[in-house]
Each structure stands twice: as structure tokens, then as C-alpha cells.
TrEMBL record:
Taxonomy of the source species: Eukaryota, Fungi, Dikarya, Ascomycota, Pezizomycotina
Name of the featured protein: Abnormal eversion of vulva protein 20
GO MF entry, a single one: GTP binding
Domain of life according to the entry: Eukaryota
InterPro entries: Arl2, ARL2/3, P-loop_NTPase, Small_GTP-bd, Small_GTPase_ARF/SAR
Residues noted as binding GTP in the record, renumbered to the chain: 21-28, 67, 123-126
GO CC terms in record: cytoplasm; plasma membrane
Amino acid sequence: MLSILRKARLKDKEMRILMLGLDNAGKTTIVKRIMGEDVNTVSPTLGFIIKTIEYEGYKLNIWDVGGQKTLRSYWRNYFEKTDALIWVVDATDRLRIDDCREELHGLLQEERLSGACLLVFANKTDVNGCMDPEEIREGLQLNAIKTHQWHIIRCSAIASTNLQEGLAWVVQDAKNRLFLF
Ligand SMILES: Nc1nc2c(ncn2[C@@H]2O[C@H](COP(=O)(O)OP(=O)(O)O)[C@@H](O)[C@H]2O)c(=O)[nH]1
Ligand SMILES: [Mg+2]
């Protein structure tokens, strides 16, 4: 049933993308950069922000939800009808990679996210000495994920690198899974 609804929406060329990750990972900055907004005025997200962008004829509704520990229990309110999960990781934050892994694997247990693909954005890779995607893949134990299509890509919201490539993967994966071209 859900997948029928998804297909119907995809036919309307509309996708729902949930942007999650620990606080300070750069979620809001990524969204602002994609929207072409000023990235110098980002403040911590307390609730959620929905932004709609056009991408290759698709309407992407991106939900940017606050990631502070106190807010994470609210994440579940946003799971319904999610086509893609974008998990943003701060590649400079080695100290919280374990916390990051636990939150991610916990999320993937969620029934309502079972139809979503997973893009991991290794953000802040403009910073010297940050973790490379390989280190993050191990830190997050991505290889253990068998329930979702996943892909990791390095990016920088500040340097504006690879954000479009990430979206391209998300859109392509959704199209492939739903057999609509
Ligand atoms: N160096 C660097 N800093 C970034 C990047 N993306 C975000 N930041 C900074 O990280 C901090 C947290 O960003 P924010 O978007 O609020 O994170 P959120 O809590 O995940 O929404 C801000 O000071 C951003 O300027 C990046 O690609 N490179
Ligand atoms: Mg934010």
C-alpha cells in the first residue's frame, strides 16, 4: 500500500527527503546551500524546516529536523512517507562517531523508514584532517546495513562540493526502485 502511494507521488514527480544526523553536522547549511541561500547565518534548528526544490523536473520536499539529543525523540514524527533519508555526518567529529552510528542504526530499525534509501553525506570535508569516507563507512558500520540501499559521498556545504551529486544519487535510486523512468 505504501509503495503504491509512493509510486503515485513519484509519478507526480514529488519526493519526500528527510535530512537527519547529529546536531552541528551541517544539515541546515547543506539545505541552505542547495537553495542558494546565505550560509553564513545558520543557527541551530529547534523544530523543523521544510524546503522544496526543483531537481531535474522533480519536486523535492526536504525536511530538515533538529538533531540535538533532546530533539531526537521527535524524529519519529517525520518518518511517514519518506522516500529518502539523508544522513549528514560531521567528518571532523571523531568523538561522536559512535553516537552517530547508534542513532543511525536505531533509525534504520524503524518500520516506517523501511522503503527509504540512505544517502550518507560526509560533510565538512573542506577541513584538513577530517575523516575520509572510508573511515566514516567503518565508523558507522555501513557495510552491516542490508535493509536499505545506501551510498556515501563526501561533500562540503561551505565549499559547495558534491551536494548536487548527492541529490542526483537520491533521485536516481528512487526512480530505479520504483521502476519509473
Ligand atoms: N568547515 C565547514 N563547516 C561547516 C560545513 N557545513 C556546516 N558547517 C558549519 O557547522 C556548523 C553547524 O551547521 P548547521 O547547518 O547548523 O548544522 P545542523 O545542526 O546539522 O543543522 C555551522 O557553524 C556551519 O557553518 C562544511 O561543509 N564545512
Ligand atoms: Mg540545523
